[in-house]
Specification:
This protein has one helix spanning 40-43; strands at residues 32-34, 47-48, 51-52, 59-62, 68-70, 75-83, 88-95, 98-103, 105-106, 115-116, 121-125, 135-142. By secondary structure, it is an all-beta fold. The chain is globular and about 35 Å long.
């Protein structure tokens, strides 16, 4: 069986690589603003651990500001921090299979070191202060991973997500509430500096 892409709907038990089963990190039906690996020309302008990126390193899900962010799987909170000008406030969970990252959030309702259950509330989506819509950046790393692979060690989460319905992934226009199609309107990543620690 070939690996599904971010534009295919994954149904329960149809494809479970490494036995990882993730639920939606947001309440409600998902809508993808920016998929895994998209806009490689834009992201080549950034590095992660000193290595040029190959494309978008996660999935950006549209969400109303204040929407609840949920743990995609049971695990433990290992980091709550802020990356100004990049991921903003984020939460990272550790799982038996690796880790998950939830960025552009506000008001965490969990503490570092706390164990969480699948579907437990972690915090809320931050209202956007920029020209692109509010969203959750969701990413996973599957152990063992290599942070120097041009993806920051992250993998496409969609192959592991069991969603209630197909996510919308069509191109998005700048004159709607959807993601701007022009690369200059994509969210910036923080430009890496020597000694800087990436999530």
């Amino acid at each position: 069986m070939s690996s599904p892409t971010s534009h295919q709907f994954i149904t329960s038990s149809q494809y479970e690589p490494e036995g990882i089963f993730l639920v939606s990190p947001l309440e409600g039906a998902p809508r993808i603003l920016q998929g895994w690996g998209e806009h490689p020309d834009h992201y080549r302008g950034y590095t992660y651990n000193g290595v040029q990126l190959k494309g978008h390193i996660g999935i950006d899900f549209a969400a109303a500001g204040g929407a609840w962010v949920m743990a995609a799987d049971a695990g433990r909170v290992v980091e709550i921090s802020v990356e100004p000008g990049g991921f903003g406030q984020y939460i990272k969970l550790e799982h038996a299979w690796g880790e998950s990252l939830y960025a552009h959030i506000t008001g965490p309702v969990v503490d570092s070191g706390q164990s969480v259950t699948r579907g437990q509330r972690l915090g809320r989506v931050e209202p956007s202060r920029r020209r692109y819509p509010p969203h959750l950046h969701f990413a996973i790393r599957i152990a063992p991973y290599n942070r120097f692979d041009g993806w920051g060690g992250f993998s496409d989460p969609l192959a592991f997500l069991h969603l209630p319905e197909p996510p919308v992934t069509e191109p998005l226009a700048a004159d709607t509430d959807r993601w701007p199609a022009q690369s200059e309107d994509l969210p910036p990543m923080l430009v890496e500096r020597p000694g800087m620690r990436r999530p």
